[in-house]
Amino acid sequence: MDSLDRKILAELQRDGRLTVTELAARVRLSVSPCHRRLRELERSGAILGYRAVVDPRALGMTFEALVFITMRQEDRETVSDFEGAVAGIPQVVRAERLFGDPDYMLRVVTADLDAYQRLYDEHLATLPGVLRLDSTLVMKRVVEERPLPER
User: Fold this and answer.
1) Which of 123, 42, 39, 43 is closest to 84 using CA atoms?
2) Radius of gyration of the chain from Cα atoms?
3) How far apart are CA 75 and CA 64, in angstroms?
4) Which of 29, 95, 96, 129 would be a feasible disulfide site paired with 78, CB 3.0-4.6 Å?
């Protein structure tokens, strides 16, 4: 990946709806080579996909929590079962396995505290292999999703 590919990625992160013509103009490249580079970035997996970034509040999801999970056991089968179960919970919008303690961090969105309590009791507390769940409520997002730095 060279600096021109990085410029293409930076522009697409700012605005994923750019046409190839607009993208080519922004990175100062003719349309055909820009299109070839774009397809190669997609083929190589550098570009994972395109999507709209939606404000959760627009869908009535005004409650957000970070859930830190410490596992009781971390054998391969338990971890696989746990991660599969987490992937099946639509309110979990991000899940990350961590080094150290805790073992996982989940970002969860719900309509309100009551909805979060139901999710917690019915789904999160019953996840395979869990020893402890600690929730922290999100007061305010300081940095929203933003483009990755070029380097």
Assistant:
1) 123
2) 20
3) 30
4) 129
Residue 93 structure tokens = 């919008």
Query: Of 82, 86, 57, nearest to 71 (Cα)?
Result: 82
Report the candidate in 3, 6, 1 with the shortest Cα–Cα distance to residue 147.
6
Side chain identity at 44, as an amino acid letter?
A: S
Indicate the pTM of the whole model.
0.84
Give the other-Cβ count within 10 Å of 67's Cβ.
22
Q: What is the 3-state secondary structure (H, E, C) of 2-50?
A: CHHHHHHHHHHHHCCCCCHHHHHHHCCCCHHHHHHHHHHHHHHCCCCCC
